[in-house]
Amino acid sequence: MPLVDMGDMLRAAYAQRYAIGAFDFVSLDMLEGILRGAERARAPVILSVAESHFRHFDVELALAAAVVAARRATVPVAIHFDHGSGIETARRAIAQGCNGVMVDASDRPFAENVRITREVVAMAHRCGVPVEGELGYVTGVEGEDAELHPLDPQPTCPDEAEAYVAETGVDFLAVAIGTVHGRFRGTPELDFERLAAIDRRLGMPLVLHGGSGLAEADYRQLAALGIAKINVFTALADAAATAIRERAAAGEDHLLRLCADVREAVAQEVERTVALFGSAGRAESLDARPWREVEHVVLWNSDGLSEGEVEGLFAEGRQALAAIPGVRRVFTGRAVQAGARFRYCWLVRFAGREVIASYRDHPHHLAFADGRFRPVAADRCTIDFEDLGS
Ligand code: 13P
């Protein structure tokens, strides 16, 4: 059961008081290592891409690889967009394969955070995609992640958290209870009392950012107090860098051999941490719905358009329809066989079932379908197919 509903995944973890690792990857080696580690541990896992890392790699390519990796994984996988800045990047992440998104407006005043988060929730929920918001502020370590997370730490206030969840409709909440992004200096002091108070108020899956480098006992306590997702990047990046450094120190200078141990180093770190999170061994018993894309198929014949006019119509439609939230691809085609019952088709791939209704009612679709397409395509057949495997 490869790609699954992330809401189901985190609600199951929350109910059973364990946490699922959400690992940010920045390379193919890391992606493969994460899945190798999760599969060895039989742990459900979340593959994450963080918007703040996008200047280091092409996210469209990275997500295409994650989708392929998830399809062939033997443990439940979700694909998550980490630290998104707002609605447009979240829409793109869903279009490129994410089935969970985070919106991080935690550096803004409360009302603005609520406004930005609500917008993303409304869009993502129309696609069936759950949303993580953040309240309070998790800072970055000086000299490492400080430029990405520059403000002073701000612990999450339980009262505000309750209001934030009610006003935004987020599915999961990231909390600030003493962790930082990057490598800790000294010993982290986690505010478990605060976490327990937030958990009592909200009763929903909570998320911990800055999950690298905590004490082993801390992870167990975090899960016991409602943390259902722990984000990790630095620990994997360090494991990868150490593997490269050791090869370099041994005199290696060829790229392939320098990187030869990265996947295994990442896999071992993933295996170690998911055991601490309590998610090792949960893959087989996890009760989560499979995540299924939908192919919206429209077969049609034109009422007297020339081939050139059909191509113009297709180009216009591709442009208008691809921007609708939840649309992953717009394929337009002409039958190869001259005598086919239908000469043309649209294959519009939706992120999931919920998109059938939100796409139908979207202003771009209504304008194009009613204004341009239907008047010239009376002879047509439309069916939505859900993915049963490919
Ligand atoms: P670390 O880099 O400290 O592991 O934090 C990762 C994180 O929180 C990503 O969202």
Description:
- The chain is α/β, with parallel strands linked by helices and 390 residues long.
- The chain has 2 domains: 6-277, Aldolase class I (TIM Barrel, Alpha-Beta Barrel); 294-386, Alpha-Beta Plaits, CATH 3.30.70.100.
- It contains 14 helices and 12 strands.
- The longest helix has 17 residues, at 110-126.
- 1,3-dihydroxyacetonephosphate is lined by residues 24, 50, 82-83, 181-182, 209-212, 231-235.
Write a brief structural summary.
This protein is an alpha/beta fold and 390 residues long. The chain has 14 helices and 12 strands. Helices cover 43% and strands 18% of the residues.
User: Which structural category fits the helices and strands?
Assistant: alpha/beta
Number of strands: 12
| CATH homologous superfamily label of the largest domain | Aldolase class I
Largest sheet: 8 strands, parallel, barrel
List the helices and strands and how they pair.
Layout: H1 6-16, E1 20-24, H2 28-41, E2 45-50, H3 59-72, E3 77-84, H4 87-95, E4 100-103, H5 110-126, E5 131-135, H6 158-168, E6 172-175, H7 192-202, E7 206-208, H8 216-224, E8 227-232, H9 234-249, H10 255-258, H11 262-277, E9 294-301, H12 307-322, E10 327-334, E11 344-350, H13 355-361, H14 363-373, E12 379-386
Parallel strand pairs: 1-2, 1-8, 2-3, 3-4, 4-5, 5-6, 6-7, 7-8
Antiparallel strand pairs: 9-11, 9-12, 10-11
Helix pairs in contact: 2-3, 2-11, 4-5, 5-6, 6-7, 9-11, 12-14
1,3-dihydroxyacetonephosphate binds at residues 24, 50, 82-83, 181-182, 209-212, 231-235.
